[in-house]
Design a protein that fits this description.
The protein contains 10 helices and 11 strands. By secondary structure, the protein is of the alpha+beta class. It folds into 2 domains: 2-151, Ribosomal Protein S5, domain 2 (2-Layer Sandwich); 156-283, GHMP kinase, C-terminal domain (Alpha-Beta Plaits). The strands form 2 sheets. Strands 1, 2, 3, 4, 5, 6 and 11 form a 7-stranded mixed beta sheet that branches. The radius of gyration is 18 Å and the shape is globular. Catalyzes the ATP-dependent phosphorylation of L-homoserine to L-homoserine phosphate.
C-alpha cells in the first residue's frame, strides 16, 4: 500500500494561459493505492458526491489504466471540485506518483506529468498539464508541448474560494480565440516579469506579471464580486490578483507576512457581494509526496 499527498494548484496566473502553474502548500488531496486485479475507486472528503467512482471517468482511474497498474484507489478530497484549484489534477498527480511507486514503474517525475495529464483529459476533454505539472513537481512550472520547466519558489499567496461553481468547460468557452498584437506584446511582457519574479522569489515582480488579459480576464465576469475582491486585496497589500485557473477561486500574491490581512479583505468583499467564501492563506509549495 502507498499513500501520497498532492497539493492544490493554480494555473494560468493571468499572463500564462495554459502554460503557467504553481503548487500551493494547502489544501491537498491524499490518495492511497493497493494492488488489485482490477481498478476500483473510493472517494471521501469535500465534494465527493460530484466525483465519479467509475475508473474510466475518474482522473486517478485513467492514470491507473495509463500505467497498466490496476489498484484499489482511495481518494480523500481536500481540494473541492470545480474550484479553480486543480482538484482533478491533485487526484491524478497523487495517483500517478503512488502507482509508479507501488508497481515500481521507474518513471521520472517529468514523465509522470504526461501520464497524469491523460487523467486530466477525463474531466476537461484535453490532456492539459498546467495543473498536474506543479502538483507533481512543486513550485512554479512552465509547460509547453515539448518541455516542462520547474522553478523552486516560495511566494506568499492567498487562494480565496467562493461558493460559486464554474466548470472548466464553461470557462474555456468564454476565452476569445484571438487577440490584438498590442495585447499580445503586453501579455508577453507580463509573463516575462512574472517568471523573473518567481526565479527571484520577488512578490512585487510576480504581482506585476499577474495581470489578467482578455484571455484569462474574460472569466472574471463568471465570478460574482470579482472586481471588488480584487480591489480589496490590493488595498490590503496584495501585489497582484488574478482568477485561479478556470475559477471561481481568486489568487492574490502577497508580501511576506501579509496573507492574513489580504485573506480577510477578500472574504469581506465576497461577503458584501452576497457570496460565502473560504480563504487559504498559504504559499507556493512542494509537489506530490509519499507519506
Amino acid at each position: 500500500m502507498v499513500t501520497v499527498r498532492a497539493p492544490a494548484t493554480s494555473a494560468n496566473l493571468g499572463s500564462g494561459f495554459d502554460v503557467f502553474g504553481l503548487a500551493l502548500e494547502r489544501p491537498a488531496d491524499v490518495v492511497r493505492v493497493e494492488r488489485a486485479d482490477e481498478t476500483t475507486i473510493e472517494v471521501t472528503g469535500v465534494g465527493r458526491q460530484y466525483i465519479p467512482e467509475n475508473p474510466a471517468k475518474n482522473t486517478a482511474g485513467v492514470v491507473a489504466e495509463e500505467l497498466d497498474a490496476p489498484a484499489h484507489i482511495e481518494i480523500n478530497k481536500g481540494v473541492r471540485p470545480s474550484s479553480g484549484l486543480g482538484s482533478s489534477a491533485a487526484s491524478a498527480a497523487a495517483a500517478a506518483v503512488a502507482l509508479n511507486e507501488l508497481y515500481d514503474r521507474g518513471l521520472t517525475p517529468t514523465e509522470l506529468v504526461r501520464v497524469a495529464a491523460e487523467g486530466e483529459a477525463a474531466v476537461s476533454g484535453e490532456a492539459h498539464a498546467d495543473n498536474v505539472a506543479p502538483a507533481i513537481l512543486g513550485g512554479f512550472t512552465i509547460v509547453t508541448d515539448e518541455d516542462v520547466t520547474q522553478v523552486d519558489a516560495s511566494i506568499p499567496v492567498v487562494a480565496c474560494l467562493p461558493e460559486i461553481v464554474v466548470s472548466t468547460r464553461d470557462a474555456r468557452q468564454v476565452v476569445p480565440q484571438s487577440v490584438e498584437i498590442d495585447e499580445l506584446v503586453s501579455t508577453v511582457g507580463d509573463a516575462a516579469t512574472l517568471t523573473a519574479g518567481m526565479f527571484r522569489n520577488d512578490p512585487e515582480l510576480v504581482g506585476k506579471g499577474l495581470r489578467n488579459n482578455s484571455l484569462t480576464g474574460a472569466r472574471e465576469s463568471l465570478i460574482k464580486g470579482f472586481d471588488a475582491v480584487r480591489e480589496s486585496a490590493l488595498s490590503a497589500g496584495a501585489t497582484g490578483v488574478a482568477v485561479s485557473g478556470a475559477g471561481p477561486s481568486v489568487l492574490a500574491v502577497c508580501r511576506e507576512g501579509g496573507q492574513s490581512s489580504v485573506a480577510s479583505a477578500m472574504l469581506d468583499a465576497f461577503f458584501d457581494a452576497g457570496v460565502e467564501a473560504r480563504a487559504y492563506p498559504t504559499s507556493v509549495g512542494s509537489g506530490a509526496a509519499i507519506l
